[in-house]
Amino acid sequence: MTRKTKKLIIWILLIPVIGFLASRFVTPGEISTPPSHPYVRGGHVPATAPTAPISPATGTPNGVQPGAPPAAPAHYGRGGSAVSSPSVSMYELIQLMDAQPTTIRGLSFTNGSNDVRVSRVGGADFVVQAPDDGGKQELRARALADKIPFAVKEVKVDPIAKFMTDNALTLLIFGAFIGLMVMAQRRQAKQMKGITGMGSARAKDADAVRKSIKPTKFTDVAGCPEAVKELKRVVKGVVGKEVYDLFEAEMPKGILLIGPPGTGKTLLAKAVAGESDGTFSITSGSSFVEMLVGVGASRVRDLFENARKKVAETKKPHIIFIDEIDAVGGKRGGGTSAGSNSEREQTLNQILVEMDGMIGNEGILVIAATNRVDMLDDALLRPGRFDCHVAVDLPDKAGREEIFKIHLGKRPLGEGVTLAALAHRTYGYSGAEIKGVCNRAAIVAAEAYDELRAELIASGKTAAEVKEILRPVITLEHFDEAVDFVRYGNAAESKQARMSVLDKKNTAVHEGGHACSAAVLDGCDPVVKITIMRRSRALGYVQYLPENDRVSFTRDQALARIISMMAGRAAQEVILGTCDTGASNDFQQATDMARKMVVSWGMSRLGHISVGDRQDAMGTSGGPNQIGPDLANEIDREWRSITRACYKAAKDIVKADRERLEALVEILMDKETVLADEWQALLAKYPSKFDVKTLVLPKAETEEEGA
């Protein structure tokens, strides 16, 4: 229920309440009516009657001469007279009643009011203000004595309404005070609830929303068949447990999904929830961590206690999914506080106890996901806790085809758009990135279709003719733009137009150096696109696509990549005699690969060693303090030697193929983008003059030298 709806309901309820209170105020009603004809002493009614207040001294109306014509008689009784009533004093009325009682037709009293209306024979009514209730009693006594008719009217006042009107201000102040007290009490209760409920689990119950969302099945997951196969085995053990009981097979207590971001770890957990008929809870590692020590551990206890209750109530297994468990499951002993007093370690200890401690967790399955398994504590990874590790890697070509098949759905595809072609263009893309490519391609195609339709309508075509001419399809060009958008960002055409000719030429020479060196070296992947079109994450780029998916690198391939990365800066120095800041990312990638060759892959003169990526108790990478100063210095000299040798090789390639490079720069300055077919034609037109046999590469330790 929205806030607007609540306000409407409150107003609807207030309308009858207000009407009820208003209806309790009624107009005065007569409870004692006067006789049908006035009682006149002696039966004599004077021919003339005063028309103004009576003067006690003369017995005639003030300001009226005797013998004046009488005024129109006033109607006595309910409703009163239409003529405004003059007012006289009570003393004058008593004198009139004593002196001329026959001129008074009757008196009218009203309970709760000191006004007394006097009706006269042949004259206008007038009002007497009695000083108090005693004065009204005296007038009624004189009227009885003088046989003057009188009536008493009583106002029917609701006691509740009268009390509310008489004490409105007091009630308002009292109500405001009560309201403030209630608000303060609610605020205090909310704060106390936040404090007392801090240790409650923050897990979301997926069963509450399962009926309102589309369930995820294993058929909705592609690109990771090994992970799906392993999880199907788990689901089969959860659903058909009696089969495994025949062989006394025990299902794992915990499943750890390991893989890079976007590969589908959370999607796999959703599929497990959709395939199994058990209950499901979702939380994350960060939801356990609080500033106060012990809160995370309390939430873990509450999470598993709720899971045990659900298993007991439903007689079905309960699945707990913890996303990004590395936020709380890191290695212990590296905190700033002493021992296990830190909040993170307290939480981790509680997770370890709950998963495999004195209390059994029959019917509870824990699934966790992380992309930093190297940070997790060893006690968390051992069998009995997360004893089933499922790798969810980047999909291969066949996996990418399956992912495209799922995400393309019923989108209209143009000629030449095949799953194989799309999978080939998205080497190294994760499942999440492929989904983004499909959606972006549809957006680009829709915008292009709308522009063409508007042009045709403006040219005089009817809607029916436009529908016959245009066909809504997504072409390979749309997918190419989507692939570049996902990896490099949106095209900044306005910024591209504002770039100076010198900046464009610097970029063209830089990207041309990458492409020309990659065409010479056997270890580089084929070039399919060269562009200087500026995007949000790149001034320009060269797109490589391997013929087949690669799972490892040889030493020649690693050196070829470093040379190609260095060739951008080398081309600028050779062709332009200058350089700019565009090579910063190239140097970073080249340095990282050169260091890995030395410290991790054993591809340098230092021999077959691996001293990189070591971690201390805090989970941070090891450095010179872990390997010693002498070896650290040798490592630095070696990777710098590799980068220098690769840079010299890049300059040699650029100098030898300068004619090819200048031709490519000329095309890029004119068209901004060169695709694979045009690039192959350029390579055939300008054959390479570089002899690969003369390439001097950094040496590695030989077996004889190692011995």
Give a structural overview:
The chain has 707 residues and is an alpha/beta fold. Helices cover 48% and strands 10% of the residues. The chain has 25 helices and 15 strands. The strands form 3 sheets. It has a 6-stranded mixed β-sheet with strand order 1-6-3-4-5-2. Strands 7-9-10-11-8-12 form a 6-stranded mixed β-sheet. Helix 9 runs parallel beside helix 10 (343-355) and helix 20 (584-599) crosses helix 22. The model is unreliable at 26-85, 335-341, 615-625 and 703-707 (pLDDT under 50).
Kindly name the structural category.
Answer: alpha/beta
Q: Give the amount of beta strand, in percent.
A: 5-15%
Query: What characterizes the major β-sheet?
Result: 6 strands, mixed
Give the terminus-to-terminus CA distance.
79 Å
In the CATH scheme, the class of the domain at 493-706 would be: Mainly Alpha
Tags for this model:
alpha/beta; Rossmann fold; Helicase, Ruva Protein, domain 3; Methane Monooxygenase Hydroxylase, Chain G, domain 1; 15 strands; 48% helix
